[in-house]
Write a structure and sequence with these properties.
Distance between the termini: 34 Å
Structural class: alpha+beta
Helix content: 40-55%
Number of strands: 25
Largest sheet: 9 strands, mixed
């Protein structure tokens, strides 16, 4: 029977939502104690443990706050809830699957994956316009079709009919979703922009060459057989509209009433806009449109929307990249694959706060509870520390600004190297392997690494090498690009003007094109690296990939992704970004064997062109001066130690002898029997031996790995290993 049921629980050291509970708060005061209770662990899991991306969104509810500044007529966005602003003056924008910006980013990654295009060939603009008013309105159109259909079904049913009650429940849910838009002026802006275009330009946004007012007509033949377009008789059209109005009058009234109920200060303009948006009907009244006023409104709305969207994207970028990181972590494990699904505990506190000397004991108490017991259900095996500061801006030479260039502003949303060191120092005592990546941006991408190589990363890691925690530090490079900085422009729309014929038209002038720049969106490599390694711990995942020669019980702790064609088989779900590294760059990587390195190479597996990013190296920072250690060795050693601790009753001498005996029932014999499996604990060419020094009370465990990998020795104290001190 397998005694350890999971080897892939991961802790993410990042703050997602400051309003939610965090690890420090939940652990509480630990003075005088070195662990926490089982009840406390359950409370931590209830608040901070997630097993899927949707559970992450549900538990942490990532949110951006906005409020209006009347002095400068702007919308202000912030990731932290302002304490001095009343709740009724504060709006919450939830970053979930319904958010147009987040939805656009996830759609983009999935589309690029399906298409298999590299960055230079992919048409980013085809998807980035999902946040334009036109695309927002397209989503509304689909929603309103469903709303109209459901309401018509509801209206047909008799009162008291159980089916009518069920339909009413659906309508209530639809109205609730619709009210998110019309209960928020900012959400109404793209609707108002498209509404004006619809009424002034017949919705297609195209102007006629002669710019004459439009008069709708019908095609007919006169008595001589000549084709003519005659102006349509308005009275017939009007009668038809009355029928339509009567058919949907109930829905219009319901929408208008819902809007007014939710908005005490609601006005007729917005009420009519809401009705037109969610239940569009041609008006039965001969209304006179004030063209100049509507065009002025349109341009004002568009300008305000552009400015607000610009500010929103700049504010939300660091949080969105964290969300996309969590998404990419869970994306590495197939949705339909059961078994040992990766899970994640999120600290939800800034690392600078966590790493304070007064707070580290709380982290140690938590780790001591989950990692230093013979109960492995809550054991943490991996950690993620993304966005570690490169701290390069301070070294930039001051250059006089002759032309407007990039502002050299040091990023505030990064994790300091000092906090990483303190966290690594805490993790090492509990055998937690830490995947970390450097701050995102256009300087840490595949493109840059393809030209500059890995030297700058190795230089940055110099202070982490040769330390007691080096074996548990895994630098992940390069970061992934969702939208490149130079392809992140989004055209919202064109300004409108009034023609000489007093009609509205969209301007074609370049300066009238309203455009925003997203300035690039990236995913830290640590998320993907940890997600992939966590995925291949599952025997079910390995079975799905390799089909055969996989043991159903053993975890993938010994799986060496660098061996054979493993990297071709076990690939990330991220699409290739570049054509590959040059031979010089690859030679440099192979010579140094540094880091957890991803590659975007042309490769073929069984006549299948590989279109995903693969793992090129999987090493930590433990080095013998020539090469860095493969990460699997650390986890195998940790796994064997934990199994041994459990099986021998905390390393009792007679049980250790039994553990390594030649009996078929001994643990060593059972592992040796399965050495041909892909997920063997002791693989072909590996061996495991022990020796006991009775005088010193120590057992020396020698784990020899195949090939040119060095022999590893670990000393295991015969004394209970739970007797740790801080």
């Amino acid at each position: 029977m397998n005694t350890i049921t999971q080897t892939n629980r991961t802790i993410l050291f990042e703050e997602i939502n400051p309003e939610k509970l965090n690890l420090l708060t939940l652990v509480g005061d630990v003075r005088g104690v070195n662990s926490v209770s089982d009840d406390k662990i359950k409370e931590i899991n209830d608040a901070l443990l997630v097993r899927s991306f949707d559970e992450f969104l549900e538990k942490f509810e990532p949110v951006v706050y906005s409020y209006f500044d009347a002095n400068n007529q702007k919308v202000i966005y912030t990731l932290k809830k302002p304490e001095n602003i009343e709740d009724e003056l504060l709006s919450e924008i939830h970053l979930n699957r319904q958010n147009d910006y987040l939805k656009m980013l996830m759609t983009l990654v999935e589309a690029k994956r399906a298409e298999g295009s590299i960055n230079v060939d992919f048409k980013f603009e085809k998807l980035t316009d999902m946040i334009s008013p036109k695309k927002v309105m397209d989503d509304i159109r689909q929603n309103r079709k469903e709303l109209q259909y459901t309401y018509s079904e509801y209206a047909k049913l008799e009162d008291g009919d159980p089916k009518k009650l069920d339909t009413a429940d659906k309508l209530n849910l639809m109205f609730e979703e619709a009210s998110v838009n019309y209960n928020n002026v900012m959400a109404m802006l793209p609707l108002a922009i498209e509404d004006i275009k619809t009424r002034l330009l017949l919705g297609d946004g195209q102007t006629k060459k002669d710019e004459a007012p439009l008069s709708l007509g019908v095609l007919s033949m006169d008595e001589h057989g000549e084709l003519k377009i005659l102006e349509a008789p308005k009275e017939n059209k009007k009668e038809l509209m009355v029928l339509d109005d009567n058919a949907n009058a109930g829905l219009i009234q319901a929408i208008e009433k819902d809007y007014m109920d939710l908005n005490e200060d609601g006005n007729e303009y917005v009420k009519s806009l809401v009705a037109r948006t969610f239940c569009p009907l041609a008006s039965t009244m001969e209304s006179v449109v004030d063209i100049e006023k509507e065009v002025s409104n349109y341009n004002s709305y568009l300008e305000f929307y552009k400015r607000s969207k610009d500010d929103f994207i700049k504010t939300v970028k660091p949080l969105v990249e964290k969300i996309m990181g969590v998404w990419s972590f869970f994306e590495q494990y197939p949705r339909n694959c059961k078994g040992m699904r990766p899970s994640m505990v999120i600290s939800n506190i800034s690392n600078d706060m966590l790493a304070k000397s007064s707070n580290i004991p709380r982290l140690l108490a938590y780790l001591n509870t989950v990692n230093a017991k013979n109960d492995f259900e809550n054991t943490i095996w991996y950690a993620i520390v993304p966005s570690v500061s490169l701290n390069s801006s301070s070294k930039l030479k001051a250059v006089r600004q002759r032309f407007q260039g990039n502002e050299n502003v040091e990023k505030e949303d990064v994790n300091s190297v000092e906090s990483l060191v303190r966290i690594l120092d805490a993790l090492k005592d509990y055998e937690v392997q830490c995947f970390f990546s450097y701050e995102t941006g256009d300087k840490t991408t595949f493109n840059i690494m393809a030209t500059e190589g890995i030297e700058k990363y190795e230089t940055k890691c110099a202070q982490l090498i040769g330390k007691p925690f080096s074996e548990y530090a895994i630098p992940c490079i390069p970061n992934f690009t969702v939208i490149p900085k130079d392809k992140s422009g989004v055209i919202l729309d064109n300004r409108m003007y009034v023609t000489e014929q007093n009609t509205a038209a969209l301007s074609k002038e370049k300066e009238d094109i309203m455009k925003i720049w997203i300035d690039g969106v990236y995913i830290g490599a640590a998320y993907v690296a940890a997600g992939l390694v966590a995925a291949y711990q599952s025997p079910d995942y390995l079975k799905e990939v390799f089909k055969k020669n996989v043991d159903e019980q053993l975890p993938g702790v010994r799986f060496d992704i660098e061996s054979g064609d493993h990297a071709l088989q076990v690939r990330t779900t991220m699409a290739k970004e570049i054509t590959g590294y040059t031979n010089d760059i690859k030679s440099d990587i192979n010579r140094k064997n540094f880091g957890f390195v991803f590659s975007s190479e042309n490769a073929v597996l069984k006549d299948l062109n590989i279109q995903n990013i693969m793992v090129y190296k999987a090493r930590n920072l433990l080095t013998d001066g020539k090469s860095y250690e493969p990460i699997y060795k650390t986890q195998v050693t940790t796994y064997i130690q934990r199994v041994m601790r459990l099986a021998t009753g905390d390393f009792k001498q007679e049980n250790i002898v039994e553990f390594f005996s030649s009996k078929p029932t001994s643990q060593r014999s059972r592992w040796m029997e399965k050495k041909d499996y892909i997920n063997a604990i002791i693989g072909n060419g590996d061996d495991i031996r022990y020796s006991i020094d009775e005088t010193a009370g120590y057992c020396t465990l020698d784990i020899a790995f195949n090939g040119n990998v060095k022999n590893l020795e670990i000393e295991i104290n015969r004394v209970n290993s739970e007797d740790r001190t801080f």
